[in-house]
Each structure stands twice: as C-alpha cells, then as structure tokens.
Design brief:
By secondary structure, this protein is an alpha/beta fold. The chain is built from 10 helices and 17 strands. It folds into 2 domains: 196 residues, Quinone Oxidoreductase, Chain A, domain 1, CATH 3.90.180.10; 116 residues, Rossmann fold.
Amino acid sequence: MRAMVLNRPKTQLLEASDWPKPIPTNDQLLLQVRACGVCRTDLHILDGELTHPKLPLIPGHQIVGTVVHTPLHSGFTVGDRVGVPWLGKTCQHCMYCQGGQENLCDQAQFTGYDLNGGFGEYAIADPQFCFPIPAGYPDEQAAPLLCAGLIGYRAYRMTQSSQALGFYGFGAAAHILIQLARFQNRQVYAFTRPGDEAGQAFARELGAVWAGGSDQPPPIALDAAIIFAPVGGLVKTALGAVRKGGIVVCAGIHMSDIPSFPYELLWGERVLRSVANLTRRDGEEFLALAPHIPIQTQVQTFSLEAVNDAIAALRQGAIQGAAVLTLN
C-alpha cells in the first residue's frame, strides 16, 4: 500500500513508501483509510519533541476508515465507517484504567506514535478504542473531530461553567470548540499570533466576541482560558487575563518551557492544569453531541502524497480550521 513514513525524527519530512498492507490479529479491525487529519502533535513527533516514537512510523491519529475485516463480537461489521483517535490501546487494569482515567495509563499506546496511523491506505486498530462516525459528516469533515474535537472537548469541560472563555491559539481545536461554546451561550475571546488578522477575522466569523493578538489584553477579565498553542509563555499571559478563581487549561501534548512568574498571578485561587490525551467517554459524549449543535468543521484537503505540504502549511499557521488528507 501507499504510505507516508517517518524514518528519522527531526527531518521534518515524511517519505513516500510502498508499505506492506497490515495484517490484523484476531482482535483487530482492518480499515481502508478514507481520510486522516493532520495535527500539531504530528509536528511534535516529526520535530523530535515527542521523543519515543515507533520507528519507522506511519503517523496520523485522526483516522476515518471503512471496516474491511472485523473480528467476531467487535461491535462493527464490514462496511461500517469508524474513527480511530489518538488513544489506541490501554492495559485496562491499572489504577488509572479502573478509576476512569484511562488517558493516564502508563501502558497506553497511541495511534500514529506507538502504533502505525492513518497516513497510509490501510490501518489496523483495536475496536474497543474506535468510534462510529456520526451520519451526515463527510469523511474529511469528520476527521478533525477525532483529536482537535475530542481533546479540545476534554479541555473545554475543564473550564466548568465559565462564561467568558479565552482561546489562546485559534486553530483546529478552537474553531470546533467555539461552536460548542456558542451553542451553550458562552462568550469566546480569541487570541492568535500577533498580527494574524486573517485568523482574527476567522474567529470573529465563527462568533468570537473579541479577537486579537496574544500580546493584547482582553477587554474584560476572563473566567477561564484554554491554551491550544504550544507556547509556554502563554501560561503567564493567560493567568494574567483570568479573574480570581479563574481556570487556565493547557491543552497541548507538548509545550515549550514555562517561564517563571510571580506568585501573585496564581494567587487568588486561580487554577492551572493540563489535559492529557482523551478517554473513550470523552469520545462517546462529544461525538453524540456534535451533530446536535451541529459542529461544522472547516478543512483544507490534501492528497496523501502532499502531506508534507500540509505539514508545512500547519507549521506556518496558514491553515484556517484543520488540514486533512483524503484517500478515497
């Protein structure tokens, strides 16, 4: 099969490969990949910031595929359209798995990192960690829901009942979550790279009540902020923007070092926390909710062989919404 492969980290380019078609075990699905989102996490893997990928590796963890082989009692049948997220497998018996925190399992394996992902024509996956794709979503529109949507949703839930929300970084996740926030009558204040007028206009088009650069203060004190951009300095910025008792959520899997800041910024019972990975419950809740809003993803599509162009555009901040590879 055709696949785009990472052979060495820090090369920043994937290589075209004639890869053996995967053979599923007795408890795995075999999927024909129809679409796969390109995520900032993929950049962190290519750049060597996530330091222990399986090599060689087929990246990609926002997979929409058609089942071509399924084990008995998997819950899926041949022809079903399913989604494969970042969380690919857990031990299911440790304290985290048993305590509703399977996203923290020390033995977890991740799609497109520990397990080959969706930047190829076929993929295998554990059916216990796959989701049915809601009807009505074209393949390319569904793909961003599986990471930008699911991990974004987990971060959004951590803001509790906050009404005035700051989104630092207005990319794939933020453009999905602003639709949920508007549905729930919350206000979003969007922060982009300084000078990114196109990104700010995009945020306003989607309903942000204010949009500006991350170097600008919001017009009011925020109840909570989610940091989607992998920039450690934004922690200090966001803490300075939220009111006493406010919440700052770091939503990325990797972030540059957080600079020191005065205790005064954290004092006043402000909360600073991270979000790690996702649980299957997050997926079930969000994918049931998305069609009712309805969330509409804006995507820019690329062919499989053009994945390096997608990666470059994402790196430059040139994607409005999400980048998606289409293979059908």
